[in-house]
Amino acid sequence: MNRTFVVAPAFSFFLFIFLSCGNSMEDMVEQYNGAYTGVSLTLSDDAESTEILSPGEPGFDENDMLRDEYFVWEDASLILAAPPKNVVRYSWTMYDLDDGYSEVAVMTANGKNTGREFVVYIPHSGLEVNHVYKLVLQIRDTGGADYKDSCSVVVYKHYIF
């Protein structure tokens, strides 16, 4: 008699769970993965545009090469890209705002600050946590004209709650 009372509630519970769940395993995985979609940022103000504007193209503005601020965790990477076309020289320079705008030697992924991409893995970069830096991008186009834009880079502690 004790077995009947134990089996009946357990069977009822599993039957309730089975019948109430209308999602397949694939639906649940898709729903979970949907919370982690990638985001693509563009360097133009047109939300419909996915093209990065370069010097000489209509709508190019040197003040739009970088966003105003970038916030990056102490254990993450900062990956930025400059305009891809009509450029013959790239230069990325980091300054320490707390140390009188002194230039900071940053360890980039490729070991230099003169490529189109600026890739920095923060733990190996030499940048300090809870610190604000100024990053300056300077480019020269194929016609010899120079362009410059800057942004703030904030390195902050990655708290896990």
Structural commentary:
- This protein is of the alpha+beta class and 161 residues long.
- The model is unreliable at 37-49 (pLDDT under 50).
- The strands form two sheets. A five-stranded mixed sheet has the order 1-7-6-3-4, with no helix packed on it. A two-stranded antiparallel ribbon has the order 2-5.
- The two termini are 48 Å apart.
- It contains three helices and seven strands; from the N terminus they run ααβββββαββ.
- The longest helix has 19 residues, at 2-20.
- A hairpin with a 4-residue loop joins β6 and β7.
Structural class: alpha+beta
Give the amount of beta strand, in percent.
25-35%
Q: What is the H-and-E element order?
A: HHEEEEEHEE
How would you state the average pLDDT, rounded? 79
Percent of residues in helices: 10-25%
* Form type: globular
Number of helices: 3
